[in-house]
Design brief:
Structural class: alpha+beta
Strand content: 25-35%
Distance between the termini: 44 Å
Subcellular location: Secreted, Extracellular space, Apoplast
Protein name: Germin-like protein
InterPro entries: Cupin_1, Germin, RmlC-like_jellyroll, RmlC_Cupin_sf
Bound molecules: 2-acetamido-2-deoxy-beta-D-glucopyranose
Helix content: 10-25%
CATH architecture: Sandwich
Number of helices: 3
Family: Belongs to the germin family.
Order of helices and strands: HEEEEEEEEEEHH
Keywords: Apoplast, Glycoprotein, Manganese, Metal-binding, Secreted, Signal
Length: 191
C-alpha cells in the first residue's frame, strides 16, 4: 500500500512538473459555435499590430504594450504560443511585472535598452540589449525595462510558450487591488 502510494505521488509530480498549456487532440481549435469547415487563412492571421509602427507617444513615460493572447487572437487557443509587442517612447520604462504561466523570450527590435529580472534568491540580473539581441526571462520572475535611448523610441517583441501567459504588475496588484492600506503598510515594513 505504501509503495503504491509513493508511485501515485511520483506520477502526480511528473504531471505537475510538466505544467504548461494543455495538449489538444486536434490540429487546432475553433470557438464554440464556429464550423471548422468555415475556417480560412484569415482565422490564423492577426493584423492588430500594424498601428504599432506609428504610435503617438507624446507625453508618455511608460511603454505601450499590446498583448496578443488567445483573448484577442482566438486561433492561439490550445497552440501554446503568444506574443506581446511593446513600444518604448524615448527614456521610458516598463514597470516591474511577471508572467505566471510562461517564460518570455524578449527580442530587442531597437536599442539600446536595459532589461532586468530578479530570481527567487533576490539576485538582480541587468543586461543592456542592442537591436537584434535576444534575452530570456524565466517563468514567474519579476522583470522590468529601462529604455535608455533619448533620441527616438523603439520596440520589443516578447514571445511566450503559452496562449495566455498572464501578467501581474506589482504596483497595481499591491496598490489598486483593495488590500487595506494599514495592512499593506505593516506588511511592507516587515517585508
Ligand atoms: C498625440 O497625443 C498628444 C497628447 O495626447 C496630442 O496632443 C496630439 O494631438 C497627438 N498627435 C497626433 C498626431 O495625433
Ligand atoms: C534609465 O537609464 C537612463 C540612462 O542610462 C538613466 O539615466 C536612468 O537613471 C535609468 N532609469 C532608471 C529608473 O533606472
Amino acid at each position: 500500500m505504501r509503495r503504491l502510494c509513493s508511485v501515485v505521488i511520483l506520477i502526480a509530480f511528473a504531471i505537475s512538473a510538466n505544467a504548461g498549456d494543455p495538449d489538444i487532440l486536434d490540429d487546432f481549435l475553433v470557438p464554440p459555435g464556429i464550423d471548422i469547415n468555415s475556417v480560412t487563412r484569415q482565422y490564423f492571421t492577426f493584423t492588430g499590430l500594424r498601428d504599432m509602427q506609428r504610435v503617438n507617444y507624446t507625453g508618455k513615460t511608460e511603454s505601450i504594450v499590446r498583448r496578443v493572447t488567445k483573448k484577442i487572437f482566438p486561433a492561439l487557443e490550445g497552440l501554446g504560443v503568444s506574443v506581446s509587442r511593446t513600444f518604448y517612447p524615448p527614456l521610458s520604462i516598463t514597470p516591474p511585472h511577471y508572467h505566471p504561466r510562461s517564460s518570455e523570450l524578449l527580442v530587442a527590435l531597437d536599442g539600446p535598452l536595459e532589461i532586468s529580472f530578479i530570481d527567487t534568491r533576490n539576485k538582480l540580473f541587468v543586461q543592456t540589449l542592442q537591436a537584434g539581441d535576444l534575452f530570456v526571462i524565466p517563468r514567474g520572475l519579476i522583470h522590468f525595462v529601462n529604455y535608455t535611448r533619448g533620441d527616438c523610441g523603439g520596440g520589443t517583441m516578447g514571445i511566450f510558450g503559452s496562449a495566455n501567459p498572464g501578467t501581474v504588475t506589482l504596483g497595481s496588484t499591491l496598490f489598486e487591488s483593495g488590500i487595506k492600506a494599514d495592512l499593506l503598510a505593516k506588511s511592507l515594513q516587515n517585508r
